[in-house]
Amino acid sequence: MSTPGICYLVGAGPGDLGLVTLRAKECVEMADVLVYDALSSPEILRWAKKGCEMVNVGKRAKDHKLSQDGINALIVERTQAGKKVVRLKGGDPMIFGRGGEEAAELAAAGVAFEIVPGISSTIGGPAYAGIPVTHRDHCSQLTIFTGHEDPTKGESSIDYAHLAKTPGTKVFVMGVARLREITAALIEGGADPATPIALVRWATTGSQKTITGTLADIAGIAEAANFGSPAVAVIGDVVKEREKINWFEKRPLFGKRIVVTRTREQAGELSRELAGLGADVVELPTIRIELPDDKQGFVDGVAHAHEYDWLVFTSPNGVERFFDAFFATYEDARSLGNPRIAVIGEGTAKKVREYRFAVDLIPEKFVAEGLVEAFKQESIENLTLLWVRADEARDVIYNGLVKQGAIVDECVVYKTVPETGDPTGAAARITEEGADLITFTSASTVENFFKLGLPWPEGCAAGSIGPVTSEALKKHGVKPAFEAKPSDIPGLVAAVRKWSVALKAT
Fold this sequence. Notes:
By secondary structure, this protein is of the alpha/beta class. The chain contains 18 helices and 20 strands. The strands form four sheets. The chain has a five-stranded parallel β-sheet with strand order 3-2-4-1-5, sandwiched between helices. The protein has a five-stranded mixed β-sheet with strand order 6-7-10-8-9, sandwiched between helices.
């Protein structure tokens, strides 16, 4: 018996990934078909399951990859075929998103659908610019309209004379190209030319830009600033509140475009930290993690781990692959026996603790040489150690521990390979728009970044997590602007912040 399909009309929010609803995330994760527009936060695509059909339909002004009729036909056809279809739309699907039209088409076709509201840019955009759309000192009424229609055309369905006389805040979207005509129509209809107005471009993202003025002069200000769409406009005295509560644009990394090159699975932690500080984060994974070539050796190493005196982990990836394999083999954590555990770095230690195991040894310097040095404080002569590592790891640890008299076996639990997929178009964005900083968290991220053949962005700096990564950069003729100390993600975030502060001081 075939499974009936269903289409979810999902609001993706205004841009900040943190503003996507939990229900929207659930829908994307279970989608068989994901139909998305150009205004969706591209990082949302990472939530899609393997094998999900992704269809970019564009839907940006004057640049539609598929007509609205084509989109309607697509979502109906895929739903009728028994698929779980997600139609992902920027903002809220029912606020100038043509979600009502798409829902009507689905209803007419007799297929199941669900509407998942999202935060609209008409509300979220002003909030991120420090402008409350309602405020008891200024207004208690809100009017939202589209600026897509030309006010100079007689058949326009928007009564600008009526709008001009309507009290309270007015918000419109899709009107930057007609800003001069819209403001002129409002003034002609009786609006005070001195009424404050703000335009917020790429609202809620690290690329957000806000300009303010009055109905009389905002068009000239926007033209001088080459201010384009997508943008939301706010008209009314509430704009004055921005001077007091402009919070988002005051974050320490605001205005900086920072590239994260970690694996797609690991990028989230660093991206969240940087975005939380206001950066415009572009995720361009240059590597991905795969099973090692010697899969039997991997299985055998994990199965016999309880026979060792020490387990040595040098990366969170190694910890995760090891314990995932361990618990696929054993049901009881006590099957690991009682080996002591050594790690490099707090990030690796944190991952070990997630599996409810304690860490016995962590070096002061979060590099292989630091771990070898730390073991000199232990007596490991004739003890057995299992080094859980990546395929391409340096031999510093093996040689250093053997020199101290230990019996060292190696368990290769993963390998890194070049990442070939780029579903969010990050590479094109970096090439076209540039970047202020590219962060590197391992030598392999460096090597595979340069294999992409992308031109180094003009004026762009490189940030390194540690000395090995720094050496890899220097081999490619790039001197890192800074090196994290300690060599972990918190250390890297702190170094990025310090770099930004130093730039502002110059």
